[in-house]
Amino acid sequence: MPTRLTNYFLKTLREDPSDAEVTSHRLLVRAGYIRRQAPGIFAWLPLGLRVKSKIEAIVRDEMTNAGAHEVHFPALLPKEPYEVTGRYVDYGDGMFRLNDRRGVGYVLAPTHEEVFTLLVKDLYSSYKDLPLSIYQIQDKYRDEARPRAGLLRGREFTMKDAYSFDYTDAGLDASYQAQRDAYERIFTRLGLEYVIVKADAGAMGGSKSEEFLHPTPVGEDTFVRSAGGYAANVEAFTTLVPDARPSEGLPAATVFDSPHTPTIQTLVDLANAEQPRDDGRAWVAGDTLKNVVLAVTQLDGTRELVVVGMPGDRDVDLKRAEVAFQPAEVEAANEDDFALHPGLVKGYIGPWSEGGAAVLGEKGSTGIRYLLDPRVVDGTEWITGANLHEKHVFGLVAGRDFVGDGWVEAANVKDGDPAPDGSGPIETARGMEIGHVFQLGRKYAEALGLKVLDENGKLVTVTMGSYGIGVTRILAIIAELNNDDKGLIWPAAVAPFDVYVVATGRDETVYAAAEQIVLDLEAAGNEVLFDDRPKVSPGVKFGDAELIGVPKIVIVGRGVADGVVEVWDRKSGDRSEAAVDAVVAAL
Amino acid sequence: MPTRLTNYFLKTLREDPSDAEVTSHRLLVRAGYIRRQAPGIFAWLPLGLRVKSKIEAIVRDEMTNAGAHEVHFPALLPKEPYEVTGRYVDYGDGMFRLNDRRGVGYVLAPTHEEVFTLLVKDLYSSYKDLPLSIYQIQDKYRDEARPRAGLLRGREFTMKDAYSFDYTDAGLDASYQAQRDAYERIFTRLGLEYVIVKADAGAMGGSKSEEFLHPTPVGEDTFVRSAGGYAANVEAFTTLVPDARPSEGLPAATVFDSPHTPTIQTLVDLANAEQPRDDGRAWVAGDTLKNVVLAVTQLDGTRELVVVGMPGDRDVDLKRAEVAFQPAEVEAANEDDFALHPGLVKGYIGPWSEGGAAVLGEKGSTGIRYLLDPRVVDGTEWITGANLHEKHVFGLVAGRDFVGDGWVEAANVKDGDPAPDGSGPIETARGMEIGHVFQLGRKYAEALGLKVLDENGKLVTVTMGSYGIGVTRILAIIAELNNDDKGLIWPAAVAPFDVYVVATGRDETVYAAAEQIVLDLEAAGNEVLFDDRPKVSPGVKFGDAELIGVPKIVIVGRGVADGVVEVWDRKSGDRSEAAVDAVVAAL
């Protein structure tokens, strides 16, 4: 039975939705694929649901090929398991919480590690039951602070989440690899370019994690890669630590007046003017040690100041800092913080004071923790604050004149930084997350008591992986990548229909002929959307066809009386005539 | 790729779950189809999900045949639309409610009339866009007071809910009929016997409603039907009202002493002993007028007493009373209620007092509303309470001696009662609701402002229907109907697999031969579950096969060396030999 526009649920819109920030959102709403219900929450209209189902079918297929079996959990789950693992607290405001009529606490699950763990614990008890990989395609909820960009970051989204269960580390490696391979096949079938990068495991915990990023300048994630094959999410990038140097023979540090040096550059200029280097090389920003005061707020609300010392040509990258301090929140210290800590001489903060007493760092007088960038190795010399108003110090040597209380990866990453694996300089790029695989290890199994008997009858804790693909996000990215100024252009693998047949004019015989073509196309296995609207102008019909973006369009007009129709390729825009009885073959 | 039990996610259980009240729940848990997460909330394991998907596919197919298009709404929705229609309050504790991080109120949708109405309002504005039927298959949430019977009444459940939109009453009739016809086809394909009964529209509002009930003695709904074709849910049954009779010439009412008449029967016995009828017929319970005091609590908490007068051979049916007083809650009055109303002489309540003053009914002295059963028509004579301790009255005539403040359908329905359409006596039976179709009319469209321009350019309010099938409930009912003491016996249309192949023994060549049979069966289009577990006894394997209930079982044992396997029909229990190369044909 043909799907006819005269009774299909579809209304294309001439105007962009006022809240659309990105192309995919704008076009998916205008072309009648989705409709907003609340911030970050959408209804799926018939066209959108068809595309979503096709993506899900590809994901299902490759999950089956990876040996994973499908299950399905509710979105509404008891809060207890999330309390046991700590995520009930860790998720903060990002989790939707509610009580039932008896006052029992529930959550709308943001992800399902806990209940998958408990399900396997509930049913399995022996190593013989493992390995096991199970997955679901399910609607998840996260109360994002700023839901935005349409489906790219919603508060409800459809996700494929898979979980693997093994009792050996080698087993976990194999399960992880099987999912990783499936992800590569899925993205290839979807025509989505991807980069696999080392990632931070974040709130998930666990030992190893990789992200699949689609590289695009408009991506919200930054990643780095080297020509030698290193790739990492910028949050997971680790600094290549230089070798320590001997400090013997280095001159003693000297304090100098440095008024009017509000920036690193003014400080460097002053240094070059007043203390030129013996070898004639100019001082540069990287020769200074910048001391940045951060406020670190734990989930329980306690706020701690931390000073981070890093080369002056770096800035704090708050996302990297948040990973370093997770699950705490990190921000720059404010005026109140400084007022409470008069020992911090704003603009002139350093680890050391004249006379050699530590102001920051081990046993420092301020009591504030002082963490160092990994590049500040023993024996390096620095121009830095002297903890006195309008004074800095030259030649302060790490390890000799000051030590930190530890190391921290909080500085930004720059093009040209060396990859930690020695594979050469990295460059940064932008990407959108399209998949994430985690070796969770035993974190969840330990917290929830998932153990099995091994070959020797000994109880061992299970080791797990978790593997996520954002189905609705991928749909939005495909829309983001495949469009022009006329509308969407779906790749055949996920198009809502294979062919879009447009009948034009007012001649009923044309519509009858078009319907026969639709039936022939359907008989040949095509999914067809038939624009049979009798009183709509060809211009409007063609505009809708372009906006909706079915890859192949067949125009049936008066020429059909002579056995001729027009075949239109949405992507190339090519239009050519075809004989009616050759249309099926032509497509 | 064969689905092998060695890596499938399945664990059959020997013990019944402790909370299982019904067979379907017990077997679906034991056979590894579902697993409880919280009261009335279940996870779907691979076998269960397959059965559920098959039911959904049949529903989808018939929705398409009925011209309905699929959409999908979130479960999490803003509360405002439900406030506008009043259902936010009407649902009482039955609705899950929550706030987001900004304090904005949301609900987990129990059903989606409001947002479907708004969606159509959002996109459509002309009669030319109608009729429209759209549906979804979606997980719904209701905070049932007593979730029970496994999937039969859960707090989360999957439902197909369709909505039709028309601008004429005739259009609504046609849309309603199309869904009703689709339901008949769906239940026929699922092999589910059904009765279509008139139903009460309940909290949905609207003008006409029918329920599809599966007749079964364990059903939780009572319905009535006549041989002449009348069928109604007991809540929707209406009494055939007898004609009024002349009261001229009837003797005056007389009061008599009636101590020790705590029950209707003792009162009838006393009447027969002390006041025998002139014609010699004995007084029966139906000659007495029983006055029952009900407490009716509105949603805002106000509690009102109401007295219902009905023939003494009837009892109050609280479900029918709740329909009569909806959305209020109804219960029997308690001691406190009586204490507050000393005008009600417990055990001797009647509408009338000696001397002719009305105690109940129009301008009665108690101020309490007095409603009458429809059978208490003018001219009927009654034995009833005299509103004096230990006194009753004979020959009290309705219309002459007392009137009510209105009529109410609160009495129970009994076998032999006449059908309201004159089609003869009804009988009561039990059934389970499997579908419900509503003509909502303009209630939702009016509340939410859904209007379209008609042919004359005039704005008209749209008229709607809503049509629900409980997918997970149907699955449970099918399981409830198709089982024996060994386990489940799925009908082929919804079985998780078509064939279950069991390899027995320890001979690897048997397993290899079995695998080839599995591949041949799959190549012939069968879905096959392969029990390839090498170290499990045949007895356990056969027990699992019976418990899981795939309709056809193939046993591959040592005989395969001679080219013979066994084919086992799960339902009949018949086992017969078949040649290996004839297995595909044999099935």
From TrEMBL, chains A, B:
Residue span(s) of domain Aminoacyl-transfer RNA synthetases class-II family profile: 48-491
GO biological process: prolyl-tRNA aminoacylation
Segment forming the signal sequence: none
One of the record's GO cellular component terms: cytosol
Pfam families reported in the protein's UniProt record: HGTP_anticodon, tRNA-synt_2b, tRNA_edit
Alphabetized SUPFAM superfamilies for the sequence: Class II aaRS ABD-related, Class II aaRS and biotin synthetases, YbaK/ProRS associated domain
EC number(s) per entry: 6.1.1.15
Recorded superkingdom: Bacteria
Main localization of the protein described in the UniProt heading: cytoplasm
Catalysed reactions, as listed in the record: tRNA(Pro) + L-proline + ATP = L-prolyl-tRNA(Pro) + AMP + diphosphate
Coiled-coil blocks: none
Subcellular location as annotated: Cytoplasm
Keywords: Aminoacyl-tRNA synthetase, ATP-binding, Cytoplasm, Ligase, Nucleotide-binding, Protein biosynthesis
A GO molecular function held by the record: proline-tRNA ligase activity
Domain-level remarks: Consists of three domains: the N-terminal catalytic domain, the editing domain and the C-terminal anticodon-binding domain.
HAMAP family: Pro_tRNA_synth_type1
Function per UniProt: Catalyzes the attachment of proline to tRNA(Pro) in a two-step reaction: proline is first activated by ATP to form Pro-AMP and then transferred to the acceptor end of tRNA(Pro). As ProRS can inadvertently accommodate and process non-cognate amino acids such as alanine and cysteine, to avoid such errors it has two additional distinct editing activities against alanine. One activity is designated as 'pretransfer' editing and involves the tRNA(Pro)-independent hydrolysis of activated Ala-AMP.
Complex and partners: Homodimer.
Family under the similarity heading: Belongs to the class-II aminoacyl-tRNA synthetase family. ProS type 1 subfamily.
Protein name per the record: Proline--tRNA ligase
